[in-house]
């Protein structure tokens, strides 16, 4: 079972302790010089804000206290965008070996991210997939993606120049100790990539 994390925002739009990453990122993404860390207890988060050293703290870029004890999984991600609806969608398919063991898809809900069109769906699919894997206590995963920004923003090779990519980079970097990436060619008959594309496309048609 995934442990509750507490995010201490020391410098940001509103200093405080937040129980979810989505709440935390609203205070720090795009804020110059933002300082924040994740903790395993609310007390440690408050001590951090107040300048007290917390021995068990983990920075937002390290997940040293997380333990993943399952097998390796391959996850294919994709996104889609409908210009007439001004909506984007995401989808991912989880493989263990050659077997599909889980699929998920949905409509993006970040209005600001819509400006990045299908890229928003690609990024959200990746984040949803990582969160799913974390809940399963999996040892490691490989994200297979056809948009190169998925890996380039995660590793810092590409500069994040808007709140959507900044939010993705801040989210994904703590997981890089057990998440790896593999760029695949889109629409070339790769089963996992085709399935993720289909999942994202179908849910968008129904929106």
Automatic annotation (TrEMBL):
Q: Record's SUPFAM superfamilies?
A: L9 N-domain-like, Ribonuclease H-like
Instruction: Report the domain of life of the source organism.
Output: Bacteria
Q: Does the UniProt entry include the keyword Cell inner membrane?
A: no
User: What is the required cofactor set for this protein?
Assistant: Mg(2+)
Which stretches make up the Ribonuclease H1 N-terminal domain?
A: 5-48
| Residues annotated as domain RNase H type-1 | 73-203
- Which terms in the Gene Ontology molecular function aspect does this entry carry? metal ion binding; nucleic acid binding; RNA-DNA hybrid ribonuclease activity
UniProt entry keywords in alphabetical sequence: Endonuclease, Hydrolase, Magnesium, Metal-binding, Nuclease
Q: Which reactions fall under this protein's catalytic activity?
A: Endonucleolytic cleavage to 5'-phosphomonoester
Does the record carry Nuclease as a key word?
Answer: yes
Task: Write down the Pfam families for this protein, in alphabetical order.
Answer: Cauli_VI, RNase_H
Q: What is its EC number?
A: 3.1.26.4
Its Gene Ontology biological processes? DNA replication, removal of RNA primer
- What PANTHER family does UniProt report for this protein, alphabetically? RIBONUCLEASE H1
- Family designation: Belongs to the RNase H family.
Return the protein name.
ribonuclease H
> What does UniProt list as this organism's lineage?
Bacteria, Bacillati, Bacillota, Negativicutes, Selenomonadales
């Amino acid at each position: 079972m995934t442990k509750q994390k507490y995010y201490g925002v020391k410098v940001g739009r509103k200093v405080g302790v937040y129980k979810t990453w989505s709440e935390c990122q609203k205070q720090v993404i795009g804020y110059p010089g933002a300082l924040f860390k994740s903790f395993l207890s609310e007390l440690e988060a408050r001590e951090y804000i107040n300048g007290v050293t917390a021995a068990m703290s983990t920075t937002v870029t390290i997940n040293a206290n997380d333990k993943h004890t399952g097998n390796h999984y391959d996850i294919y991600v994709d996104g889609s965008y409908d210009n007439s609806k001004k909506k984007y969608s995401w989808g991912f398919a989880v493989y263990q070996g050659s077997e599909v063991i889980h699929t998920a898809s949905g409509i993006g809900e970040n209005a600001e991210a819509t400006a990045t069109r299908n890229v928003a769906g690609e990024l959200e699919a990746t984040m949803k997939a990582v969160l799913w894997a974390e809940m399963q206590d999996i040892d490691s995963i490989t994200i297979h993606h056809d948009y190169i920004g998925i890996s380039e923003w995660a590793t810092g090779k590409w500069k994040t120049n808007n709140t959507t990519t900044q939010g993705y980079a801040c989210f994904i970097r703590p997981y890089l100790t057990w998440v790896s990436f593999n760029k695949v060619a889109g629409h070339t008959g790769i089963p996992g990539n085709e399935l993720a594309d289909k999942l994202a496309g179908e849910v968008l048609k129904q929106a």
